[in-house]
Design goal:
260 residues, mainly alpha
Length: 260
């Protein structure tokens, strides 16, 4: 038999192997306990752990296309300007356009201007401003298109000889009440416009007064004597509105001039 001194290394090696096996079993039991406890790290399991190396799917990026619209306030000011300027010329009887038997009588031209020209411009401007998230622009432009278009059709009724109860030609007494409603509506618009620009608020107040005195003229509240007081008063307010609208086109379209 080999000497005892040669057996000692083998015994120590077997003892070391036994301790290693015991330690490995202990580590594996600990790792199992860890797994039950909720830890799934491969480092604690002491043996290879299958890991899903598949990269996560890339997030889909959606880009919404934003429609950029131009500002339509300039178009609305243009429509208000030319319509009130033509109406003031008629009421003030420039060059005889309000003389029924004169060569320049122009009442029937106001019908197409009110029902088509100004109404189309204001409807388009109102739609664009609505898409631009402009509550005042959308509401006021569409409302004025409805008001002025209705007045234009009422004018057409008179030119076609809509009779009154006594058989006479039609008049504008009923249209006056529409103008009174427009007076109130424009006062509301002026309160909304103060938050945007004071000049717009002043314009809406002027438009409100214009509708009030045009209604007075239609209803005969201000008599139209030989001096045509009622028509001239209403015409003067129409001219004031026209001048303001034409002026505001400059700062709105060019950015130059006083606005606020």
């Amino acid at each position: 038999p080999p000497p005892r001194s040669r057996l000692i290394p083998f015994a120590m090696a077997e003892e070391a192997d036994a301790e290693a096996r015991a330690q490995g079993l202990t580590d594996r039991k600990a790792s199992l306990r860890s797994l039950v406890g909720g830890q799934t790290s491969s480092l604690s399991l002491q043996y290879p752990h299958k890991v899903d190396a598949t990269p996560p799917p890339a997030e889909e990026k959606f880009s919404a296309t934003k429609l950029k619209l131009v500002d339509a306030n300039g178009l609305a000011l243009f429509a208000v300007g030319f319509s009130t300027f033509m109406f003031s010329a008629f009421l003030l009887d420039w060059t005889g356009v309000n003389t029924s038997k004169g060569p320049h009588f122009g009442f029937h031209y106001l019908i197409e201007m009110l029902t088509w020209g100004v109404s189309v411009c204001l409807v388009l401007a109102g739609i664009v401003q609505g898409l631009n998230d402009d509550l005042l622009g959308f509401t006021s432009y569409i409302a004025h298109a409805a008001i002025l278009g209705t007045i234009g059709y009422n004018f057409e009724e008179v030119t076609q000889g809509a009779p009154t109860s006594d058989g006479g030609p039609g008049d504008f007494s009923m249209v006056a009440y529409l103008c009174y409603a427009a007076f109130y509506i424009n006062l509301v618009f002026s309160l909304m416009a103060v938050k945007i620009a004071y000049m717009f608020a002043v314009l809406y107040v002027s438009v409100a007064l214009m509708f009030l005195f045009v209604g007075f003229n239609f209803a005969g509240v201000i008599p139209n004597d030989d001096e045509r007081t009622g028509a001239k008063t209403a015409g003067a307010f129409c001219l004031i509105v026209a001048i303001q609208a034409f002026y505001l086109m400059v700062p709105v379209l060019t950015g130059k001039g006083f606005l606020k």
